Amino acid sequence: MLDVRNLSVAWRGAAVIDEASFTVNPGEIVVLTGPNGSGKSSLIRALIGLSPVAGGCVRWNRRDVTHRPFHAREGMALVPEGRLLASRLTVEEALLLGAGRGGAVQCASVMQEMFDRFPILETRKDQPAGILSGGEAQMLSLARALMPQPRLLMLDEPTLGLSPVAAKAVVAMLENLRTEGIGMLLTDQHSQAALTLADRAFALFDRRLRPMAPPCPTPEEREIAACSA
Ligand SMILES: Nc1ncnc2c1ncn2[C@@H]1O[C@H](COP(=O)(O)OP(=O)(O)OP(=O)(O)O)[C@@H](O)[C@H]1O
């Protein structure tokens, strides 16, 4: 589904990523970990055209989209790091903003689907997004990214700054999305929580992306870890 080959990223000539290669398939969770400033955000933002690509290519459903505009990447969605939601919009308005090009009827039905997935958002739908707690705001970011019904979600540090309970709720939601066949690429500095989810994981260090050893847990090991968490 997503095939990244020898992708290099550079900000104003300063290399951040050298020749990263990996794939993400439907229903697969791929984790990128690495210290602060290693280039995790730059890498995932390059995949949707927000960071400057210095070489290599991004293939999306077998099409080269490396230098194509964002609309050529329909089916990809980004959940950015931190609380980037416009604080004065209500929860409902913030979701509508994520809906994209669907008609009113389709939009209403997807919105209801989001409220079914995230009941807390329905109870807060008329309130400003800016007053949500960290965990609720993360749920809203996730719901907003799901509104156009993507097949690949890219999540930048989805559990950063959350309480253990809120982080667990996000992780459970990602597990559910995986069972629905949505592929996910997520960055996580504190790799432990993310690695319990990972089908494959890579570490970014010295601009290079390296497969992580030891291998990621098997599905059975993940289930045991989830039960004992
Ligand atoms: N818009 C930008 N313009 C210039 N340089 C940038 C820009 N965004 C990121 N960088 C640089 O790219 C490098 C990697 O930053 P990036 O945010 O991708 O790392 P990260 O691994 O996501 O860090 P963190 O874990 O702290 O969020 C840093 O040196 C940063 O200063």
Automatic annotation (TrEMBL):
Alphabetically ordered keywords of this record: Amino-acid transport, ATP-binding, Nucleotide-binding, Transport
Where in this chain does the record put each ABC transporter domain?
2-229
GO biological process assignments: L-amino acid transport
Task: Please tell me whether the keyword Zinc is annotated for this protein.
Answer: no
Q: Which domain of life is it from?
A: Bacteria
What are this entry's molecular-function GO terms? ATP binding; ATP hydrolysis activity; branched-chain amino acid transmembrane transporter activity
Family listed: Belongs to the ABC transporter superfamily.
What is the official name of this protein in its record? Branched-chain amino acid transport system ATP-binding protein
> Taxonomy-wise, where does this protein's organism fall, top ranks first?
Bacteria, Pseudomonadati, Pseudomonadota, Alphaproteobacteria, Rhodobacterales
